[in-house]
Amino acid sequence: MSLPLVVLLPFLGALAAPLFAQGGRTAIAVISCVPAIIGLAALYPHWAVLADGGIVQHTTEWLPALGLSLSFRLDGLSLLFTLLILIIGLLIILYARYYLKPHENVGKFYALLLCFKGSMLGIVLSSNLLLMVIFWELTSLTSFLLISFWTHKKDARRGARMSLAITGGGGLALLAGILLIGNIVGSYELEDVLAAGDLIKNHSMYPVALTLVLLGAFTKSAQFPFHFWLPHAMQAPTPVSAYLHSATMVKAGIFLMARLYPALAGTEQWFYMVSFTGMATLLIGAYVAMFKHDLKGLLAHSTVSHLGLITLLFGMGTQLAAVAAVFHVINHAIFKASLFMAAGIIDHETGTRDMRRINGLWRYMPHTATLAMVAASSMAGVPLLNGFLSKEMFFAEALELNLPGLWAYLPPLVATLAGIFAVAYSARFIHDVFFNGRPVNLPIFPPHEPPRYMKIPVEILVFACLMVGMFPAFSVGPLLYAAASATLGGDVPEYHLTVIHGFNLPLLMSFVAFFGGLLMYTQRQRFFDFHARFKEIDEKAVFEAIVSRISDTAHTVTAYIENGSLQRYAMLLIVSVIAVSVLPLWDLGIAIGSNGLSPVDWPTLIGIAILVVASLGTAAMHRDRFFALVLLSVVGLLVALGFARFSAPDLAMTQLSVEVVTIVLLMLALYYMPSWTPIETPKGRRIRDILIAGAAGIGMTLITLAMLTQPFTSISEFFLENSKPGGGGTNVVNVILVDFRGFDTLGEITVLGIAALGIYAMLRNVDLPPPPGDGQGHAWTRDAYPMMLQQIARPMLPLALMISAYIFLRGHNMPGGGFIAGLITAVALILQYIASGMSWTQGRISIRYHNVIGLGLLFALIAGAGSFAFGYPFLTSTFDYVYWPVVGKFEVASALVFDLGVYLTVIGATLLALTSVGRLSPHSAINSTNYKEGS
Amino acid sequence: MELAFAVVIGALTASGVYLMLRARTFPVVLGLTMLSYGVNLFLFSSGRLVTGGQPIIGSAETYSDPLPQALVLTAIVIGFAMTAFVVVLSLRSLADNDNDDHVNGRVPEQDRIPQEQEGANT
Fold first, then answer.
1. Band of the pLDDT at A771, cuts 50, 70, 90?
2. First-to-last CA distance in chain A?
3. Which residues on adjacent β-strands are paired with residue A406?
4. Rounded to an integer, what distance in angstroms lies between the CA atom of residue A617 and that of residue A699?
5. For chain A, what are the domain ranges?
6. In angstroms, rounded to a whole number, what is the distance separating the alpha carbons of residues A53 and A48?
C-alpha cells in the first residue's frame, strides 16, 4: 500500500499547500516537505528487499477491459529515481523558500511543484505502461505551468509553449508506441513486457514501436534534434530549472530507456538510433555551451550534452555501458542541481546572469564560489569528484565499441572532443564568474552572500559530489548495484568502483580532455571569433515560424470549408452522407430480397400516387409558400392514412393530430414571413441540388425495397407475450411506451418540454411586424374572426376534452394513450385561439403552459420514483382491477400516472410553442380583440 | 406493395433533400418536415408491411411488429418539436436580420439580384 501512497501524497500536498500561503513562505515550505518526508519513511522498510534485486509490487484493478490497472512497482531502478526526486525535491523546496520573493504567488508555485513531483513519481513507480503514459503527460502539463510561472514574461510563455508542444507531441508518439508494445505482448504490465523481450524484438512491428517509444524518450530528454526546447525552458524560475531541467523531468526519457532496456535494447536498430542520437546530442550540446553568455544557458546546453552522453551509453548496448549510464544519471543530477542553484544565487544577488558582466565574484561571495567551483569541476570531470568516475567509465566504453573499419575511431574521438568542450565551458563557469577582473555594471552592487539557509541545499549536494567521488563503493555502491541489476533484468557484470583504475587509455583521454579544455579556454577569443562567423540559428524563431505556418494552413482550410454559408454546409453534409453510404450498400448487394413483392390493391395505389405527386409538387412549387404548405398537409394526411393501412392505429392517430398542429404552426409562422420565395440566382445550383436530391431519393428507394423484401426476426415477441401479463395492457405499443421502454419516453417528453421552453425563450421580447400584404400587391383581408367558426369551436371544446379523456383512459388497451390524448386536447384548445383570438382565449384559459410542462414531468417522475417505495427499480409498473359503478371492471395501472405526465407535457409543450408564436406581434390582427370596433 | 412503398419513401426523401438545400428558411423547414415523414415511414417499415395485424392483443391472428411503431410514435412527436423549434428559429432570424429570411442570415454578395434588393426594401 505504501507505493500508491508515495505517489498520491504530493498531490494531496498540492491541495493543502496553498491553504498555508497566508502563513508566509516558511509555513508553506514546511508543509510542502511533508509528502516527501512521509514518502521516504514509507520506502525505507523496502530497502532490504530491493538491495538483493527484489521487487515490491502493488496492483489494484482499474479498467481491466483496457488493460489499465493501478499497479506500482518498486525495484532498484525506480528506487534510484524516487530517491533523486524526493531528496532533490526537498532541497529545492528549501532553496525556493529563499529564492521566491514575498510578494510572489508562493501558493501556486508550491502546489505546481508538488503536482509535478507526484507525476514524476508516478512515471518511475508505475508498473502499468498505460498508467505511466498518463503520468508522463502530467509531467508535460505541470512543467508547462511551471516554466510559465512568471506569466507576465513573454519569453516564459513562449518557452513553456514550445516545451509543451515538443514534450507533449513526444508523449503522443510514446502512447502509440506503448499501445503497439501492449498489442504485441498482450499486456501492459511491466512484468509481462520485460519478460517478452524476444517476442517484441522479433515482431514485424518492432521498428515502428521502437521509433515511437524513442521519439517520446528523445523529446522528453532533449535529444538532438529536439534539444532546443530545453534552453528556452530556462525562462522558468531557477528552482524549477534545477529540479525539472537537470535532475528529474529531462531524466524521464533516460528512465524510459532504462526501464524498457530488457524489452527493446540489443538490436541493430536500437544501437544505431540511440547511440548516434546520443553522440550528436553530446557533441552539439557541449559545443554550443561554450558560447553562451547566459549562465543558465551554459548550464542548459551542458545538460543537453550530458543527457546525450547517457543516451549514448544506453545505445552502446553493452551491460557495462548501461551500468555507467545509471551511474552518470546519479552524478549528473547531483552536480547539475547544485550548479543551477549556485547560478540562481548569483542571479539573485547580482540581478543578472550575463557572464560578460559578472566577473570577480570571489571577493564578494567566497563561500558560494567555493561550492560552485567544486560542482563545476565535477562537471568537467576532475578526479576525486563524482563526475570523473562515470566519465572515466564512459571513455572506457567508448573504446570498447566494435564498429567496422575507421568508424571504430569515431566514439573515442567524439568522447574526447566532448570532454575537451566540457572542460572548457566548466573553466569558463569558474574563471569568468569568480575571477577575471571586476564586475561590469551589475544591477545589484555590491553583491554579497545569500541567506544562510539558501546555501544549505548546495552544500549538501556538493558534499555528495565529494563523497561519491572519493568513496564511491561506500556511498552509492549498493544503490547503483540495485539500480543496475533492475535495469539489466538480473545479471550485473563485474565492475569496480574505485577512484583510479591505474594508468590506462581512458585516463589518458581524461588528461587530453582536461588540458585540451584548459588550452581551449585560454584561447577562447579565437573560438568566439570562429563561432561568430556562422549565422546562429534561432531555434525559437524557426519553431514559431513552423507553428504559425501550420496555424495559417489550418485557418485557410477552415475558411474554405466553413465559409459561413449554411446552404453550403447542408449540401456538403448530404453529399458526404451519400458518398459514405454508397460503398457499403453496394457491397451489401442492394436488390429485391428472397421474400419477393406482395400484390398491391387499387385504393392503396391511388393513395400512394397522390402522396408521391403531392410531395414532389411541394418541392416543385415551393416558391409559392402557401400552396406548398397546403400540399405538405396533403402529404402528412396521406402518411397518417398509410399508418392506418399498415396496421398501426396509434401512429395514424398521432400523425393526424400532429399534422394539424404542425400545419397550424407553419401557417402562423408564414404570416410573419414573405409569402413568396425569390428565384435563386445560379441555375446551376438548382440543377446540382436536383441531382443530389435524386441520388438521395433513389438510394432510399433501393434501400427500402431491399429491406422490405428481406426475411427478418424481431425482438418484439417478448413485448407481445409480456404485454398483457407483465404490463397489464393489450395495446402493446402503449405498454412499450409507458412501461417496457418508459425511461426512453421520459427522456423524450423531457426533450419536448425543453424544445417548447427554447421556443418561448427565443421569442421573448422579439417584435416582428408582419408584412402588410401577401407580397403580390394584395393587402390582408381585414375580416373579424368568422362567426361560424366561433360558434362551432366553443361547444367543440368540452366534446373534444371528453374524447381525449376517453382516448387517454383506454390507451393501455386500445389505440390511444397520453401522446394522442394530449395532442387532441391541444388541437381543441388551439381551435379556440384560431376562432376567437389570443386575448379572448387567454382571458378565459389563464393557465401558464410552463407550469403544465413542469407538472407533466413531475407526474412522470413520481410514477417512476414511486416504485422505489416498494423496493423496485425506477419505473417498475404495477396494476390492479377496480370496480367502478356504471363502468364496471376497470384496470388501474401505475403506468397510468406516467401516461398522465406524458399527456400534460404534450399539451403544455404544444400550446407554449404555438402561443409564443401567436404572441409575436401584439398589434397584429390575430390577437386584437378590439379589432372589430377599430375597423 | 413493397415497391410502391419504397417509391413513396424515395419521393419524400428527394423532395425533402431538395427543399433542405434551398436558400430561404421556410422551404428548408418544409424540407425538414418532409424528410422526417420519410424517415418515420422508413423506420416504421422496418417492421415490414402487415395488413390487418394491429398490435392489440386479441384483435388479430398475427400482429405487426409493435417496437418500430412505439419508436416512430415518439419520433413523430419529437419531430414536431424539432419542426416547431426550427420554424421559430427562422422567425427569430427574420427578426434579427432585418426581415431577411436567407439561411445564411443575409443574402450572399454573389446571389444578389436587383429585384431582390427591391423586395427587401418593401
1. confident
2. 88
3. none
4. 20
5. 1-264, 271-532, 732-935
6. 9
Q: Is the pLDDT of residue A934 over 50?
A: no
Please report the DSSP string for A763-779 in residue order: HTT---PPPSB-SSSPB
| Residue of B37, B32, B9, B36 lying closest to B22 (CA atoms) | B32
**Where are the domains positioned within chain B?**
2-104
CA distance B103 to chain A (A): 6
Closest CA to A528 of A430, A637, A428: A428
What residues are paired with A63 via a beta bridge? A68
Residue A565, chain B, CB below 8 Å: the answer is yes
Is residue A295 scored above 80 in pLDDT? Answer: yes
Distance from CA of A896 to the nearest CA of B (A): 17
pTM, two decimals, is: 0.67
CA A744 to chain B, closest CA, distance in angstroms equals: 9
Set of cell numbers at residue A615 = 410531395
Extract the C-alpha cell encoding A194: 520485460
| Number of A–B residue contacts, CB under 8 Å | 323
* Lowest-confidence pick of A311-320, A487-496, B41-50: A487-496
**Dist. CA A914–CA B81, nearest whole Å:** 11
Closest alpha carbon to A298 in A358, A220, A210: A358
d(CA A338, CA A345): 10
Residue with the bigger pLDDT between A195 and A878: it is A195
Interface of A with B in 733-772 (CB under 8 A): 733, 736-737, 741, 744-745, 748, 751-752, 755-756, 758-759, 762-763, 766-768, 771
Q: Assign residue A882 a region: left if phi > 0, alpha if psi is -120 to 50, beta otherwise? A: beta
For the ranges A51-60, A489-498, A531-540, the one whose mean pLDDT is highest:
A51-60
Q: Which of B18, B28, B83 sits opposite A690 (nearest CB)?
A: B18
A-facing residues of B in 60-119 (CB < 8 A) are 60, 63-67, 69-70, 72-74, 76-85, 87-92, 94-95, 99, 101, 103-104, 108, 110-113, 115-116, 119
Say yes or no for a CB contact (<8 Å) between A666 and B15. Answer: no
Nearest to A681 among B17, B113, B119 (CB): B113
Complex-level ipTM: 0.90
State whether residue B53 sits within 8 Å of chain A by CB: yes
Least confident range of A98-107, A232-241, A499-508, B64-73: A499-508
Query: Tell me, what's the pLDDT at B47?
Result: 86
Alpha helix positions (H), chain B: 2-20, 25-45, 66-96, 114-121
Cell numbers at residue A782, please? 381585414
Do residues A893 and A727 touch, judged by C-beta distance below 8 A? yes
In the predicted model, is pLDDT for residue A571 greater than 80? yes
How high does pLDDT run on average in chain A? 87
A405-453 pLDDT, tens per residue? Answer: 778 888 889 999 999 999 999 999 998 889 888 888 888 878 888 888 8
CA proximity to A187, closest of A71, A74, A77: A71
The answer to whether the beta carbons of residues A916 and A908 sit under 8 Å apart is no
- Contact across the interface for A741 and B40, Cβ inside 8 Å: no
Work out the pLDDT band at A653, boundaries 50, 70, 90. very high
Closest CB from B10, B46, B90 relative to A701:
B10
pLDDT-above-90 percentage for chain A: 43
Asked whether residue A923 carries a pLDDT value surpassing 70, the answer given is: no
